[in-house]
Amino acid sequence: MATKEEFLAALAPLLDVVRGVNPAAPDAVGELGRRLPLDHPAVENVRTMMRQGVDQRWLCERENAGVRYSRVAKDVGGLSVDAVHMSTAAVGHVHPQGELDLCFAVEGNPRFDGNPAGWTVYAPNTWHVPTVEGGSMDILYFLPGGAITFGPCPPGATPVGKQAP
Length: 165
What we know:
Order of helices and strands: HHHEEEEEEEEEE
Strand content: 35-45%
Number of strands: 10
CATH topology: Jelly Rolls
Number of helices: 3
Radius of gyration: 14 Å
Helix content: 10-25%
CATH class: Mainly Beta
Low-confidence stretches: none
Strand order of the largest sheet: 1-2-3-8-5-6
Shape: globular
């Protein structure tokens, strides 16, 4: 059985790449997909460990409105890392410095904000209601500077993604 500390160590190769990607860049998703595709050995290892952690509840041990979640790391070289297991809509939030998400399909043919499994990136000062439809997903949220503000879309923020009904 893996631990959260071992999971964080397994994330190191991903973190090295994610740190170097600008979430405001037009091809951020493409860059991540080329450098860390779902079939990359490090990504597959993280996926396996995450699934074990969710099943064993050392990851995503908290729950709110059907969404399970946990903080993996508050600050790892300028990024916070959160783990989420979901099959519904979560709480709306703004990303002051952007958000980079690695989404793994668990059941069905899930889509995160309309996107298939893989990478989703939101630019700085964007807002969305994270939503999974068509199944369930395990998702890793990488937040530059750990910056996130929950609540309705604030003035000046750009709504993005497939908005929850």
